[in-house]
Amino acid sequence: MTYPCNTWRVVALNSVFIMLLSACGGGGGSSGGLTGGISYTGNTSAAAVTLANGEDLVVGAYQGTQAGFNIGGAASSLQGLPTGPRSPRSLALYHALRAALEHSDVSTAAVPYHAVARTDSEDGECGGTASFSISYDEAGGAFSGTFTFTGFCNEGAILNGTTSFVGTLNTITEDIIDATISFNALTMTSGAESFSLGGEVIIAAGNSSDSVFMDLRIRDNSTSKVAWIDNLNLTVVQDFTYEEISMTGRFYDPDLGFVTISTPVPLRILDSDEHASSGVLVAAGANGSATLTALSNTTYQIDIDTNGDASSDQTTTSPW
Prior knowledge:
Number of strands: 14
Helix content: 10-25%
């Protein structure tokens, strides 16, 4: 589900704080905010792209988690799980957290005067609660606080854990200028999947799009392996009928190493769909690249170039 950016303009100050937190998911620190949290100890070399691993690398880059047990292959088929890529974890987190505001009752409660603090809670659309505590200085526009999720459910994604955040509000327009959000051990589950997240999110809100920076360590709790989304820069354009995502950064597979991510054609996900219906994502390694092309909301194509000559050595088409 997408939320047009102009909905940010109609909420009161306390709600605006939560909207920003909801759009990103974490709080207040620098350099990843991972002290005592989840760390990456996997392969830190540039991945060698081969015909055997190219699809795993680009699917992992697309979804933000290691391709394997939970995604594709015999293990997923035997468990009756979908065998195609899952939607990006960064977007699932974005959507679940942003929905925390959409379903809250605090949007009618305006901040009164000067330095204030407020606590409240709200229900998830499919269960659980989200509790928040906010401090805001009306004179300077600075805000900070925490958000604690207890089984908070949105569109099948369930969050547990606490985030902290700091940021700045435009005191005249009541628009978010920026915020930094951190978390050390936020858990996200969906069906049989469970992931623990540690990292930092920085967001700058625009009129028609959001600019988001993410540094996330994602531990698959079924394998205990940690993938790393490093210096991921997202531009998220939100419309009433679709969401369009451009991204650059690195994805570290704990076994294979890292690939550099780019989207020469932005990924477009229609409001009623889970997967992209158009767009191109490239995962570039040490010697070549693997490319995922969304052909429709039901089908995607993988092209693998093992020598960097911009020519596909292997092309496959699969259902999402």
